[in-house]
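Translate structure to sequence.
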C-alpha cells in the first residue's frame, strides 16, 4: 500500500480533488441545470455528436468554472457505473507546476487513484518501477502513451473535463491539447472567447457559447441573488423589514450584471456594505458600474473608506495574493503579513497574538477574495482581478515584488535556527528534499523557495 502511494505521488505533483470540492461549493442550488438539458451537451454525453469534444465558451466571470464542476459531478454521480471521469482545473497562479507534462501525468494519477483495478495498478506499478530503475522521469509522450494504453482496455466511455484553458500558458496549452487529442476520450473544455484558443478546436469540436444562453443565465443569476438575500444577515433583515427595497436590489443588480455572476456578486457586496437608509441603497443601485474594471475601481474605493488601518491590511493581503508565485493558505498569509518589512526589526518571539483573524482578512478585502474551504487558501475573486491589479500596479504597490522579497528574507532571518532535513531526492517536487516545520513556521517553505524570485 505504501509503495502504491509513493507511486501515485511520483506520477504527478498535481491533483485536483481539492480544487473541485472548492469550486462546486460555490454553486447555488438549482443553477446550471440548463446545461445538462442542452441538446449539444446531451449529444456529447450520449456519443451521438459528430464531435468528441464540446467547447464551452463565455465571458470572464460568467460562471464557466462552476459549470465545469457541475458537469464533473453529473458524470461522476449520475452515470458513475458507465463512465470514467478525469478532470483538471487550469489556474494562472499555478503556471509553474501546471506544465503540459504535469497535467498529462495528473490524469494518469487521477485514473489510478479513482479506479484501482488489478490491471490499472499493474500497469502503473510496472511504469513506476521502469523509470525508477532508470533514475529518470517520463516525458509527456510517455505518460500519454501509457494513459492511452490503459484507457483502451477499460471497456467504458472516458470523459475528460478541463476548465479555464485561457488561464494556461499558450505553449504548454498547445502541447497539452495535442496529447489529449491522442486519447480515446470525450473532452469538455471551458475558456473565454479567445480566437486563438477556439481555432485549436476548429473542425473537431462542437461549441456551446454560454453568452447565447441569455435567458438561462439570467434565470441562474436571479436564483443566486434570491439565495444570497436569504443567507446574508443584513440583506435578510432588509428583506423582512422592507421587502419592496429588497426586491429593487435584486432587480437592479440582475439587470446590471450583464450575464456575469462575478458582476452580480461584486454589486451585491457593494450594496450590502451600504445598507443604512433606503435613500443610500437607492443611490448605490443607480450608480452600479456595468464594466468589470469599473466595478473593481468601486471596490477599491470601498476598501479605502474603511479607514487607514483596514485599508493597509487589505492592500497587504491583496498584494500577496496577486504577486505570490503560488496560492497561499490563510495561515501562510497571516505570517507573511505579520513579520514586518525590515531585517533589522526581526525578533524570534512568537507573533501569534498579532496575526489578523481570518474573518477580518476576508472582510477588509470587500469581496475581492474567496476563502476556499477545502484548501484553506485565500484567492482573488476571479483572475480578472489579478489582471486588474497587475495592469495598475500603483493601486496596491509600485514595488510589490521588492516588498515581498524583504518579507521573505525577514522571515528566513527570524527562522534561521530551524533545523531542516536537506537530503537530496530527485523525485520530490523540490529535489533538495527540505522538510519544513509547517506547524510552527508555516511561511518558511514559501519564503525559502521564492525569496530569490521576488528579488529579480
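Result:
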Amino acid at each position: 500500500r505504501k509503495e502504491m502511494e509513493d507511486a501515485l505521488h511520483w506520477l504527478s505533483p498535481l491533483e485536483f480533488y481539492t480544487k473541485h470540492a472548492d469550486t462546486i461549493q460555490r454553486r447555488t442550488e438549482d443553477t446550471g441545470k440548463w446545461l445538462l438539458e442542452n441538446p449539444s451537451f446531451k449529444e456529447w454525453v450520449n456519443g451521438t455528436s459528430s464531435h468528441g469534444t464540446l467547447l464551452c465558451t463565455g465571458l470572464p466571470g460568467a460562471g464557466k468554472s462552476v459549470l465545469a464542476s457541475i458537469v464533473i459531478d453529473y458524470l461522476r454521480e449520475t452515470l458513475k457505473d458507465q463512465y470514467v471521469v478525469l478532470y483538471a482545473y487550469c489556474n494562472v497562479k499555478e503556471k509553474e507546476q501546471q506544465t503540459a507534462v504535469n497535467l498529462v501525468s495528473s490524469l494518469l494519477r487521477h485514473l489510478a487513484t479513482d479506479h484501482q483495478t488489478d490491471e490499472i495498478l499493474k500497469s502503473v506499478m510496472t511504469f513506476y518501477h521502469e523509470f525508477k530503475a532508470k533514475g529518470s522521469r517520463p516525458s509527456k509522450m510517455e505518460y500519454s502513451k501509457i494513459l492511452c494504453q490503459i484507457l483502451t482496455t477499460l471497456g467504458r466511455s472516458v470523459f475528460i473535463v478541463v476548465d479555464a484553458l485561457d488561464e494556461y500558458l499558450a505553449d504548454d496549452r498547445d502541447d497539452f491539447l495535442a496529447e489529449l487529442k491522442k486519447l480515446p476520450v470525450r473532452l469538455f473544455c471551458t475558456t473565454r472567447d479567445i480566437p486563438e484558443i477556439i481555432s485549436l478546436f476548429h473542425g473537431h469540436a462542437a461549441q456551446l457559447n454560454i453568452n447565447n444562453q441569455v435567458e438561462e443565465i439570467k434565470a441562474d443569476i436571479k436564483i443566486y441573488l434570491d439565495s444570497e438575500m436569504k443567507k446574508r444577515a443584513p440583506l435578510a433583515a432588509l428583506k423582512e423589514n422592507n421587502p419592496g427595497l429588497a426586491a429593487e436590489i435584486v432587480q437592479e443588480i440582475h439587470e446590471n450584471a450583464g450575464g456575469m455572476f462575478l458582476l452580480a456578486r461584486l454589486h451585491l457586496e457593494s450594496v450590502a456594505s451600504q445598507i443604512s437608509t433606503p435613500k443610500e441603497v437607492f443611490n448605490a443601485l443607480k450608480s452600479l458600474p456595468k464594466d468589470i474594471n469599473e466595478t473593481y475601481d468601486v471596490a477599491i474605493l470601498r476598501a479605502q473608506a474603511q479607514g487607514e488601518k483596514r485599508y493597509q491590511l487589505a492592500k497587504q493581503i491583496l498584494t500577496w495574493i496577486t504577486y505570490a508565485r503560488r496560492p497561499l493558505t490563510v495561515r501562510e498569509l497571516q505570517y507573511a503579513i505579520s513579520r514586518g518589512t525590515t531585517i533589522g526589526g526581526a525578533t524570534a518571539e512568537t507573533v501569534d497574538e498579532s496575526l489578523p483573524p481570518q474573518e477580518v482578512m476576508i472582510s477588509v478585502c470587500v469581496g475581492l477574495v474567496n476563502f476556499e474551504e477545502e484548501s484553506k487558501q485565500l484567492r482573488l475573486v476571479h483572475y480578472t482581478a489579478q489582471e486588474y491589479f497587475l495592469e495598475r500596479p500603483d493601486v496596491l504597490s509600485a514595488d510589490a515584488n521588492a516588498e515581498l522579497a524583504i518579507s521573505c528574507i525577514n522571515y528566513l532571518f527570524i527562522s534561521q535556527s530551524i533545523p531542516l532535513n536537506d537530503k537530496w531526492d530527485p523525485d520530490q517536487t523540490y529535489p533538495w528534499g527540505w522538510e519544513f516545520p509547517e506547524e510552527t513556521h508555516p511561511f518558511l517553505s514559501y519564503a525559502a523557495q521564492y525569496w530569490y524570485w521576488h528579488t529579480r
